Amino acid sequence: MTRSLRLVASEHAFGPIARWREPDVTPADITDLDQHATYANWVEDAGFDALFYTDFLGFDPVKQLNPRLPFDPTTLVSALVARTRHLGFITTASTTFGTPFHQARTLASLDRLSGGRVAWNVVTSFTGEGNFGLRELPAPTERYARAQEFLDVVDALWASYPESAVVDDKAGGRYVDVSRVQAIDHVGECFSVSGPLDKPGPAQRPVLVQAGSSPEGIAFAARNADVVFVAVPDFEQALDYAGRLRAEVAATGRAPDEVLIMPGFRTFLGRDAADARRVRSRHVTPDALEKARRVVLRESEHFQLTDLPLDEPIPPSHLPTDEQLAAAAGRRSRAQIYLNWAREPGVTLREVLERIALEHGHFALTASPRAVADELERWFLAGAADGFMIGYGSGIAQFADQVMPLLAERGLWKPPTDHDLRSRLGLPERI
Ligand SMILES: Cc1cc2nc3c(=O)[nH]c(=O)nc-3n(C[C@H](O)[C@H](O)[C@H](O)COP(=O)(O)O)c2cc1C
Predict the structure, then answer these.
(1) How far is the centre of ligand 1, averaged over its atoms, from the C-alpha of 179 (Å)?
(2) Ligand 1 contact via 78 beta carbon (within 6 Å)
(3) CATH superfamily of 6-159+191-266+368-424
(4) 9 phi/psi in degrees, rounded to 5
(5) Per residue in 274-304, pLDDT tens?
């Protein structure tokens, strides 16, 4: 086995944010840089390839009943690269609300400051329009078209100021050969950017991560991404997604295995299946179910679950139709997963809300460490996943202590040794 499973830890998986309801955690801990650095150091020592930070550009009155990251993630990452040695970081930035010039500078800076350890999770955003002068979120097709132009401009800006322009001509008084720094003069549908960048581009193209699973999302990922995150709740859907993505990657002329597929994954671990179910049930609190009733509205306003009894099936009239779902502006793929769960024969509202609250549409296992390792092995060997992005579940520390050694024993995973994230993930160079 030459390939190795890649493992990314989620920001939510550990540390004071995950543990906020425990009596010893205070609000001061949540905003304490040392605590975030402790988590990053733990993630590094546990052998994860990278630590991932999401970003949603707006206050969410339901989700924020739980603490969220109290920092802009890219700002936090710039502090954490100084407190870690080899760990990769994946930060998130929006192409719908940001501008390519700023993003090209920020990422080039972080690439240099970290020695190639920072990746960009490219998102088109599904909330935040009111903060950027928009009355409505643009439709997904429009957002993806803008995202492509955004990336093209970022690439052009990075190339506009190459490393080779620095000639360091001390005698002639020319640090930079300005003739090698070229304007880009981009005029497109969404952006007009003259360039060049006023800072040198990154030493190599930073790793790009993407997480769209609609047809437009897959096409965008196939063309641009090095890594895809995806919410796929089961093996069949993961395999189907992997097949579609790899076909699209090949159609763009790239090698199909050049894009790493990393489904979100969380686990509730116990000694055996019954014990794991007990562990999981401790995470099902009444307030978590009530939040889940409201949180699905973010995906589609046609999930009308608020006044329904918990222990009965959901009447179809309280769920979106396929047409309503297709027309939703938000995360259609996530809404589709919730809808599929709600339509399972005989399923009660309580069961659906539990899954939404604990799994968020991701792959989740409630099982013993050995059974978890078996299932991850199955996904990996079948090509349904190249790795996993590990979320909270019953705790990422148990995953690291109990599952990662089993994966290592089977030769599926070994601790990474490379410094820059591209090599750490075994990705080819890209220019
Ligand atoms: C693991 C994972 C992490 C994501 N992180 C973010 C994020 O930080 N910010 C964001 O706006 N969207 C995030 N998304 C949403 C995706 O960027 C995308 O909007 C979503 O998957 C729907 O895309 P689609 O309409 O192409 O299916 C994430 C999705 C997944 C699966």
Answers:
(1) 40
(2) no
(3) Luciferase-like domain (3.20.20.30)
(4) -100, 145
(5) 999 999 999 999 999 999 998 888 888 899 9
